[in-house]
């Protein structure tokens, strides 16, 4: 019987198999941020285990609330800083170099096809875009990972989402994944890896694949995975060129992380996206999805463009294409948080920051901030935000606030109109 990508990764990383269903796998990287890691650090310290399994394989960042906004967040940042210094971590990103973890770490070349990665963060699934197995874990698993470089997982059942058809103008990776989640439901992929496949995936950029995999968890998925291909190799080439004589050689090596044609899936969802239109969520669950044109011009108070879902340069370009030469409606506040310093710099260079600022946006430093309602754009009771983030739970961006998830182009269009509307009206 053939194997899926996740099965192949597990088979090559398994160090123990204590029961039929549980696998202890070796980790290629442990990612850390300042919300969940300090608890693990303090616990390890109190147990006399203030060490890491490999200082080169731990990648750490202060990203959720940075620069710190109050004493609590300052304390969390301090713990991370001291830990990174005491244990001589090679890759630690503090104020000035920091950005949203799931955008920053891929940009630094830390993710490779076939890798196993854990982090104390639910959107770790993003990194599966490279053909890796990457999953969010709780404090205990994180501690074991930091200390021993291993993690226990159930055998990965895989759900395949096969996407075919031609993407219409104004339809982005965000629309595709919201549509997929609406079909699967918020628990539709629980305890499953979602493997994305089909001609649509082959045509997506790495950034778009990250947007897709980022939201696998919103359907309950442990990880989203895309098969590695030329696009993956092109993206990684600056980081891997010393290890391969040519891109073809790299591709050949990475093709070991493709599913076999006779691999077994617990479920296959086939979707033709040709008729898909720009969509948005309308309730407090990410599977409540409607066409933007069916939103009856629902008014918004704030537009937020950023996060690990849609804060990358292609996202900013897509929003800028809508905003260029236009202004935010006087009833709307616009906030742009480029996901990383590199994205920010590139946006300055391309004149994108000017377009946003001319439209009336406030541009913040790279941080999660408003995405989880912690800083830089928290909503007040009754306020509504058109947001490029991934979660619309009740109160996510502020108590009593409502979040509509959508693509950067749709969010920009909502900002101009003052209500949820079709971004295609603003695209040439
Ligand atoms: C703070 C962190 C634990 C959390 C997560 O795991 O997802 C955050 O990133 C989020 O998006 O809500
Ligand atoms: S940007 Fe939002 S979803 Fe992503 S890691 Fe930060 S808080 Fe979580």
UniProtKB/TrEMBL annotation:
<dbReference type="InterPro" id="IPR033941">
    <property type="entry name" value="IPMI_cat"/>
</dbReference>
<dbReference type="GO" id="GO:0003861">
    <property type="term" value="F:3-isopropylmalate dehydratase activity"/>
</dbReference>
<keyword id="KW-0479">Metal-binding</keyword>
<dbReference type="InterPro" id="IPR018136">
    <property type="entry name" value="Aconitase_4Fe-4S_BS"/>
</dbReference>
<keyword id="KW-0408">Iron</keyword>
<keyword id="KW-0004">4Fe-4S</keyword>
<comment type="subunit">
    <text>Heterodimer of LeuC and LeuD.</text>
</comment>
<keyword id="KW-0100">Branched-chain amino acid biosynthesis</keyword>
<dbReference type="Pfam" id="PF00330">
    <property type="entry name" value="Aconitase"/>
</dbReference>
<feature type="binding site">
    <location>
        <position position="371"/>
    </location>
    <ligand>
        <name>[4Fe-4S] cluster</name>
    </ligand>
</feature>
<feature type="domain" description="Aconitase/3-isopropylmalate dehydratase large subunit alpha/beta/alpha">
    <location>
        <begin position="7"/>
        <end position="297"/>
    </location>
</feature>
<dbReference type="GO" id="GO:0009098">
    <property type="term" value="P:L-leucine biosynthetic process"/>
</dbReference>
<keyword id="KW-0028">Amino-acid biosynthesis</keyword>
<dbReference type="InterPro" id="IPR001030">
    <property type="entry name" value="Acoase/IPM_deHydtase_lsu_aba"/>
</dbReference>
<dbReference type="InterPro" id="IPR011826">
    <property type="entry name" value="HAcnase/IPMdehydase_lsu_prok"/>
</dbReference>
<protein>
    <recommendedName>
        <fullName>3-isopropylmalate dehydratase large subunit</fullName>
        <ecNumber>4.2.1.33</ecNumber>
    </recommendedName>
</protein>
<comment type="similarity">
    <text>Belongs to the aconitase/IPM isomerase family. LeuC type 2 subfamily.</text>
</comment>
<keyword id="KW-0456">Lyase</keyword>
<dbReference type="GO" id="GO:0046872">
    <property type="term" value="F:metal ion binding"/>
</dbReference>
<keyword id="KW-0411">Iron-sulfur</keyword>
<comment type="function">
    <text>Catalyzes the isomerization between 2-isopropylmalate and 3-isopropylmalate, via the formation of 2-isopropylmaleate.</text>
</comment>
<feature type="binding site">
    <location>
        <position position="308"/>
    </location>
    <ligand>
        <name>[4Fe-4S] cluster</name>
    </ligand>
</feature>
<dbReference type="InterPro" id="IPR050067">
    <property type="entry name" value="IPM_dehydratase_rel_enz"/>
</dbReference>
<dbReference type="InterPro" id="IPR036008">
    <property type="entry name" value="Aconitase_4Fe-4S_dom"/>
</dbReference>
<dbReference type="InterPro" id="IPR015931">
    <property type="entry name" value="Acnase/IPM_dHydase_lsu_aba_1/3"/>
</dbReference>
<dbReference type="GO" id="GO:0051539">
    <property type="term" value="F:4 iron, 4 sulfur cluster binding"/>
</dbReference>
<dbReference type="InterPro" id="IPR006251">
    <property type="entry name" value="Homoacnase/IPMdehydase_lsu"/>
</dbReference>
<comment type="pathway">
    <text>Amino-acid biosynthesis; L-leucine biosynthesis; L-leucine from 3-methyl-2-oxobutanoate: step 2/4.</text>
</comment>
<feature type="binding site">
    <location>
        <position position="368"/>
    </location>
    <ligand>
        <name>[4Fe-4S] cluster</name>
    </ligand>
</feature>
<keyword id="KW-0432">Leucine biosynthesis</keyword>
């Amino acid at each position: 019987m053939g194997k899926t990508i996740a099965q192949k990764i597990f088979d090559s990383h398994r160090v123990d198999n204590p029961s039929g269903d549980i696998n202890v796998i070796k980790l290629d990287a442990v990612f850390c941020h300042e919300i969940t890691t300090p608890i693990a650090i303090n616990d390890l310290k109190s147990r006399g285990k203030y060490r890491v399994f490999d200082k080169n394989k731990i990648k750490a960042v202060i990203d959720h609330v940075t620069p710190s906004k109050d004493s609590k967040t300052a304390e969390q940042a301090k713990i991370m800083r001291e830990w990174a210094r005491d244990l001589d971590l090679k890759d630690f990103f503090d104020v000035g170099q920091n950005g949203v973890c799931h955008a920053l770490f891929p940009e630094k070349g830390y993710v490779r096809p076939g890798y196993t990665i854990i982090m104390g963060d639910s959107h770790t699934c993003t990194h599966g875009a490279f053909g890796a197995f990457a999953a969010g874990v709780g404090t205990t698993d994180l501690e074991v990972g930091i200390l021993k470089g291993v993690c226990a997982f159930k055998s990965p059942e895989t759900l395949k989402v096969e996407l075919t058809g031609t993407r219409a103008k104004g339809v982005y990776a965000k629309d595709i994944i919201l549509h997929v989640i609406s079909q699967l439901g918020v628990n539709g992929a629980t305890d499953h890896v979602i493997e994305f496949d089909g001609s649509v995936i082959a045509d997506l950029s790495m950034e778009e694949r990250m947007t897709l995999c980022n939201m696998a968890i919103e359907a309950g998925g442990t990880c989203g995975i895309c098969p590695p291909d030329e696009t993956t190799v092109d993206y990684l080439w600056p980081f891997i060129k010393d290890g391969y004589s040519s891109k073809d050689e790299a591709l050949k090596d990475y093709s070991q992380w493709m599913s076999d044609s006779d691999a077994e899936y617990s479920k296959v969802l086939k979707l033709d996206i040709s008729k898909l239109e720009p969509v948005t969520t309308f309730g407090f669950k990410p599977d409540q999805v409607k066409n933007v044109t069916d939103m009856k011009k629902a008014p918004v108070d704030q537009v937020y463009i950023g996060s690990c879902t849609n804060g990358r340069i292609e996202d900013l370009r897509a929003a800028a294409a809508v905003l260029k030469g236009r202004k935010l409606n006087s009833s709307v506040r616009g906030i742009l948080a480029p996901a990383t310093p590199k994205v920010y710099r590139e946006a300055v260079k391309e004149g994108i920051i000017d377009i946003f600022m001319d439209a009336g946006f406030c541009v913040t430093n790279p941080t999660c901030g408003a995405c989880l309602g912690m800083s830089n754009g928290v909503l007040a009771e009754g306020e509504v935000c058109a947001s490029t983030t991934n979660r619309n739970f009740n109160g996510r961006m502020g108590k009593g606030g409502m979040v509509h998830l959508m693509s950067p182009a749709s969010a920009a269009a909502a900002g101009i109109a003052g209500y949820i509307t079709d971004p295609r009206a603003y695209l040439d």
